[in-house]
Write a structure and sequence with these properties.
The protein is an alpha/beta fold. It is built from 26 helices and 30 strands. α12 packs antiparallel against α13 and α24 crosses α26.
């Protein structure tokens, strides 16, 4: 069944509203480009003052056109949009592409104009592309409505907030030639059709093999990640997400009216959906090409083969910086390389197969075969002069270089392992490199880009495995997994807080709710006053205790003097309780104090944070990272959108920077990642269950969660109701 947007994105009858005989007007250039690119459908110019334009019959209005119209390309000024869309609606046009700017991206008046236009379109069932866009190109019908000539055809689709970024990548493709486009679309303001709908259409399109995306912000981030989750198992989505800095966020808003949102949240959620994220825009096109061409990577172990020089060092560092591992070659592989190149200066990996100054392009093929046969190797990167031997040493070595190019492609397919070539001669487009690329092996000029292609191939393969594992995993036996809402005991906690007029749970209530949901907690007891010291020691033991004020008016307990640590003995506990109450009363006059919560001091460990918050673009998200009082300053945290699978949770743990802390450093215990992953999933399910029950938890903040040698201790729990 065709996608709902199919006839709009691949129109068979296209009306140009605002068609012109003036070569400087977009209404002229649009028709000229469609004709030059041999548009397969029918072009219908609309202009009340002309009878024909560029040899095509011109109609005075869209309503005067006989028959159906799939898409109207609107070349008129912004102020005319409501009237034009009203006419399209009366005609029954399926979609309209608004080129003009001057809408919500420009001013408040523009926002109101855009809203009015959208209201008219929805009343008539007309779908809108844009406004504030430069058009669309789709190869199926040769619909070139972006006024750009000589677009190379191929399996790539591009979806972008920015027309300029899109055209920059198109120019790169025109130089490269090997990897062309099936679809090009700058979405503009997304007044009606949004990113997720376009992405869904590209996912369904059999002619699209990879999606390139430049995104500044989403209007419905949740819908986008749902669409991405259905697309990425079938084809890669390679994305540059703008908004890493405050300046970037401001530029995005002024440019396209987008909500750039929190970059850390966005990148975590997008990665969770299987999207390949890049932090350099110049890698978008080459990485998309590589992911389309290369077989999956089994893990992150890579071998480097060159004929010597500093490129080996540069390659080794570029791979390592991107999370790849230089695989140790087996003794048998090293022996085989030594047989091929007796004078090789390095055969362990990286492999320096220079062997003197004679032109020996065949070394690449023979050594490459030995390396790819090694079970320790998942991918091969060639660096140096390959592709330029004939240019460097003469035509006598050309046939050998051609043979090696074909052999490398055959080896990649037979072993199912990626091969990427970095060639100093890439920009010369030599015949050998042409043979190589047409055989299916990508080549690049710069080592860093070649390394990024392999790193992204590893990332994409890992993402597909994670998503497949999450889909195949049986449902948890936890009562929280099966229950449509909160357990009764947990629901009563929330009901009690709401009845008391509070949106923040007391820590005692938060602990009770977590316990009712099956989250493991250390023992604790509430001291109503100093006289409860003896009872607390009897319940918790005579070891050191942590004491914290419980008050609906004090969220940051330490700042108000409401925390005492390492308190031991009845007298000390009594004095600490009295001190806490006095300090809080002074710091927060009139504060209601319910008591002091006592819990055994946790053993020394790593302080972490686990929580849930509400993101304006993606809804409820799970947070994990390095915790403690400096969590905002350190900001070593990652996010995922709910629901969260166990595979997602394990990936979150591996994504923070402080991996050495998790593995045990300077006497700290190594963290049990499986236990921590269970906690992350449980916390996510608490929020989901509350939402399903209609009670709503806006924020969960467990900080710190102390990872000790004996497990996890939730040292502080805070919850805010929706």
């Amino acid at each position: 069944m065709p996608h709902p947007l199919d006839r709009i994105l691949n129109p068979r009858r296209l009306a140009v509203i605002g068609a012109s005989s003036d070569p400087e007007k977009r209404g002229y250039r649009a028709i000229r480009t469609l004709l030059a690119d041999h548009y397969k459908g029918e072009i219908v110019p609309i202009n009340p003052k002309a009878s024909e334009i560029l040899g095509l019959k011109c109609y005075p209005s869209i309503e005067a056109v006989p028959g159906e119209v799939d898409l109207a390309l609107v070349c008129t000024p912004a102020k005319a949009a409501p009237e034009v869309i009203e006419a399209c609606g009366r005609k029954g046009v399926k979609g309209a592409l608004l080129l003009a700017g001057g809408f919500s991206e420009a001013s408040e008046a523009g926002r109101l104009l855009e809203e009015r236009t959208v209201e008219i379109a929805r009343r008539h069932g007309v779908r809108l592309i844009g406004p504030n866009t430069n058009g669309i190109f789709t190869a199926r019908e040769a619909c070139n409505a972006i006024a750009w000539f000589d677009i190379p055809r191929g399996p790539a689709a591009m979806l972008a907030n920015s027309a300029n970024v899109m055209l920059s990548i198109l120019a790169e493709a025109q130089f490269h030639q090997y990897f062309g486009f099936n679809t090009l679309l700058s979405v503009g303001n997304q007044s009606d059709i949004q990113f997720h709908e376009y992405l869904s259409a590209m996912g369904d399109d059999p002619d699209t093999g990879a999606v390139i995306s430049y995104i500044e912000g989403f209007k419905d981030g949740r819908a986008f990640i749902e669409a991405a989750r259905s697309v990425t198992p079938k084809k890669p989505i390679v994305m540059f997400k703008a908004g890493r800095t405050a300046d970037g966020v401001r530029a995005a808003r002024s440019h396209s009216g987008s909500l750039a949102g929190d970059y850390t949240v966005a990148t975590g959620v997008l990665k969770q959906a299987g999207i390949t994220l890049l932090d350099r825009s110049d890698c978008l096109y080459p990485v998309a090409e590589a992911l389309h061409l290369l077989p999956p990577m089994r893990s992150r172990r890579v071998a480097v083969l060159s004929e010597g020089g500093g490129v080996i060092t540069v390659a080794a560092e570029a791979l390592s910086e991107r999370g790849l591992v230089l695989a140790p070659l087996s003794e048998a592989t090293q022996a085989r390389i030594h047989e091929i190149v007796p004078n090789a200066s390095a055969i362990s990996n990286p492999v320096d197969a220079g062997g003197g100054t004679d032109p020996r392009a065949e070394y690449y093929g023979l050594c490459g075969a030995a390396i790819l046969a090694d079970p320790n190797v998942d991918a091969l990167m060639l660096t140096g002069f390959f592709g330029g031997y004939a240019r460097r040493y003469g035509d006598g070595v050309a046939e050998m270089e051609f043979k090696v190019a074909r052999d490398l492609a055959d080896l990649m397919r037979s072993h199912g392992k990626p091969v990427v070539v970095q060639s100093h001669y890439a920009h010369y487009r030599t015949p050998a490199l042409d043979v190589l690329r047409k055989a299916g092996v990508p080549f690049y000029r710069h080592i860093e880009i070649a390394a990024q292609c392999l790193a992204s191939a590893a990332d994409y393969s890992e993402a597909k495995r994670r998503m497949a594992a999450a889909s195949a995993a049986p449902s948890s036996t936890s009562p929280m997994a099966a229950a449509p809402g909160l357990p009764d005991a947990a629901a009563k906690v929330i009901a009690g807080a709401r009845a008391a007029g509070r949106s923040a749970l007391l820590e005692t209530e938060a602990r009770a709710l977590l316990a009712a949901c099956g989250v493991p907690l250390a023992p604790a007891c509430l001291l109503r006053g100093a006289d409860d010291a003896a009872a607390a020691i009897a319940a918790l033991g005579d070891g050191p205790l942590a004491l914290k004020v419980v008050s609906p008016d004090v969220l940051h307990k330490s700042d108000a003097g409401g925390v005492r640590l390492g308190v031991q003995g009845e007298a000390a506990v009594r004095a600490a309780v009295e001190g806490i109450m006095a300090a809080v009363g002074q710091a927060v006059p009139g504060a209601r104090i319910e008591g002091v919560l006592a819990a055994p001091m946790a053993a020394r460990g790593v302080e972490l944070i686990v929580g849930v918050s509400q993101d304006p673009q993606f809804g409820p998200v799970l947070l994990f990272g390095v915790g403690g009082i400096f969590v905002e300053a350190v900001r070593d945290v990652v996010f995922r959108a709910l629901p969260v699978s166990r595979a997602d949770a394990l990936e979150m743990i591996g994504d923070i920077r402080a991996q050495k802390m998790l593995d045990g450093v300077r006497g700290l215990p190594a963290l049990d990642r499986a236990v921590l992953a269970d906690l992350l999933v449980q916390v996510a399910r608490v929020e989901q269950a509350a939402g399903a029950a209609g009670t709503g938890i806006a924020e969960i903040d467990l900080n710190p969660v102390i990872a000790t040698g004996d497990g996890l201790v939730i040292a502080d729990a805070r919850m805010i109701l929706a």
